[in-house]
Amino acid sequence: MKRSQNSFRTRRAPEEPTRLPTKQEVTALTADPVQNMCVEMLQRGLHRSFSELFSLLQAARTRRKAAAFTTAAAPLLEEQRDKLETLKLRLIRAEEAGRAGSWSDSCQQRLLLAQYFSSPEDLWLRLHFYHSCADSEQGAASAPAMEAQAFLAEFYLQTDDVEKAKQRAELSLKREDEGMLGLNSQTLMPRFSRVLTEANMRLAEAADDHDTALKLLQESCRTARKIKDESLEGRANLHMGRLYLSKDEHDSAKQLFDSAKEHFLSAQDAGGLAEFYRTMAKFSESKGNTDEVIEFLEKSAEICESSHQHSELADVSMTLCEVYYRKGRYDRAREVALKCFEVSCKAGLTAMLLKAQTMVGISSAQLLIEKHVSGGMSSSPAALDRLLKREKTKACGELNSEPAE
Question: Would you give the DSSP letter of residue 21?
Fold first, then answer.
């Protein structure tokens, strides 16, 4: 009995045969991720996805080589596993949706890829997928494609490629009968209309002849009016008024300026009102009315300051300073130049800051000369030179003091 128990204790359960990995599993472990993805796509017959992925990887290598000579090279696309996986997933889904005839879903996958590549170094990828979504022949009227068109129109406007921006906007507005609906079933007509209006205004500024510019601005007014955008219509009227002013048609210009003001007031557009008063200053200057010029510039500066438009405030202040200086009001010129200097410091406007420094210096010098001469003191070059050096030291001390908060 004892022997039987010992035998039972030493007996082992039969071992399972060792399972060897398949050839495919070994390849998956040893091959690089890009090779695995390409093989998978080809095995599934997804030749379009494979071709696009391969092309993008080649483009990434080319860009890396070019960038190596100018900037610190970013990692290769194939070295970024998360991006590779996302690319593979979305490209496959896009191709499969297209094969099933679901072009809206196919465009949606491309739109998601465009939105995924949001970092600055991936802008080229972002644009690639926005273009492939917007320019899809079969899904051109789908919501994702229209969203992509809106992005591209706005992007080209922001990067000053005005002709391309206008083309995108016009192409999309021709589909008005199809609804122009984007994601969440929201109409994209206002976005395209704003791009078209802005593009026409910029093209009008660059136009060589009056008639072309006028035609573009009239189109801008109509487009802005159609979407009931008061600010945009005000800006279009302001641009058209300037065009008439350049041709000395003062009555027509004044009517358009007044119309622009009404639109800006209705929209409570502080930026538009500030621009309106600056334009009115130019209008008064053309009539030789310096007092009105100062009045309008002061109003523009006041609006800019209250609405925290620092760059515009610095610009208006410098213009006002120069007007005061030409008029011989050196005390006000110096005061406004100091204000311009303070604003430029806060906003980091280096070029304007240096200009303000110069105006503070020369205004202070003129004040000192006036005081010196009116006091009956010596006006010899040597005496004036000593006086100017003393005032320069004083002015530098004021500029270097901490600006008031």
Answer: P
Q: What is the distance between the alpha carbons of residues 272 and 277, in angstroms, rounded to a whole number?
A: 9
Two structure tokens written together for 10: 């030493």
Q: What's the token pair of residue 275?
A: 């621009």
- Indicate the residue type of 144: P
pLDDT in tens, 342-383: 999 999 999 999 999 999 999 988 888 877 666 545 445 555
> Running DSSP on this structure, what letter comes out for residue 75?
P
* Neighbour tally for 405: CB within 10 Å: 4
Amino acid at 252: S
- Give tens-digit pLDDT for 220-279: 999 999 999 999 999 999 999 999 999 999 999 999 999 999 999 999 999 999 999 999
Q: Please return the burial class of 250, using the count of CB atoms within 10 Å of its CB with bins 0-12, 13-18 and 19+.
A: middle
Exposure of 403 in the CB half-sphere (CA atoms within 13 A): 12
Which tokens hold the place of 397?
Answer: 């001390």
Look-up of token digits 């204000």: 339
Residues 6 or more apart whose Cβ sits within 8 Å of residue 360: 334, 337, 338, 341, 395, 398, 399
Task: Say which residues have a Cβ less than 8 Å from residue 74's Cβ, sequence separation at least 6.
Answer: 64, 67, 121
Amino acid at 324: Y
Reported pTM: 0.78
The rounded distance, in Å, linking the Cα atoms of 357 and 379 is 26
DSSP letters spanning 181-229: B-GGG-B-HHHHHHHHHHHHHHHHHH-SSHHHHHHHHHHHHHHHHHTT-
